[in-house]
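name: query_chain
kind: protein
chains: 1
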Amino acid sequence: MYSQSTVIVGGLAHIPVVIGIFSFIQKFFSKRASSFPQDIEPKKSPVKPVEQKSIPKPTPDAKAVSNTVIKKKHADVPVNIYRPKTPYEGTVIENYSLLKEGAIGRVNHITFDLKDSDPFLNYVEGQSIGIMPAGEDANGKPHKLRLYSIASTRHGDDFNGNTVSLCVRQLQYEKDGETINGVCSTYLCDIKPGDKVKITGPVGKEMLLPDEEDANIVMLATGTGIAPMRAYLRRMFEPTEKEKNKWNFKGKAWLFMGAPKSANLLYEEDLQRYLSDYPDNFKYTKAISREQQNTKGGRMYIQDRVLESANELFNMIENEKTHIYLCGLKGMEPGIDEAMTNAAEEKGLNWSELRPQLKKAGRWHVETY
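structure:
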């Protein structure tokens, strides 16, 4: 047995050793931390889907469909040029309704001037910007920032590279018998040309287009989820865009678009023009829930169209150059997932195994809200 004094003396003798080890560990991790970038992109509001944490081992069929190449890091994409504490005040150039007579709700196309931003607020297709609505909340604090998918290409609607556009639906819901208007969406739908708006961003690398000209792009959108799809399609098919980008799209683009009524279809004139000008490269499938019926006699939704096109769609997915983009209300995800599961089964494939493999390969892109 050791005496109390012996134990105390022995313990004191080890203190320098412990301090030395702690000092070494602290220096090691400080050095590691300095090698990481300091400006990390902030999390997108709860609109972004959670990725699966574990990736199931694929079956042989899944391996045949998925691409083994890990997705690119997109290090050269601009992020957070402007932050909430230092936003850019952009000027509204135009704000007009996108809906036709008889449509449900309110959806506007809004364009902001960026030419006076310094540093310049540049962005690429598939990114989002933040909007800080004017005014204060019930507690006297500034309203919180909202993120919106960009609906224009990097060159803007006028191709001069000095603007950014949004496609915004006014949020409305009932509470205790009263109609409540969304704060930011109402603010945006009401602003006038010449007004100043606080803008942050850009943010987002989830919805970027691949660099390859011969990639195939499958787009699943509902409502204002068409915003990034509009940017993709303009980049692919607008002659001025093609000339500026020196990027000649040679693949196939397929848009599945969901809307409650025909009058709610957005950018329809442009889409019909692309169909006419590029019939070999563009396909457009509509699901108009209140005007069309599915095979069971119910309302036609985008997932019904996916199931109808199961064979052709999965023939495209089997090509490792095919990317799938999903954007719109978060409520569309379960229906799409079920449709993809059923469609995969018709090809003898397992969607629960394929989806994470596509995600890992950077070919499955989701942004819902």
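note: DSSP finds ten helices and 13 strands in the chain.
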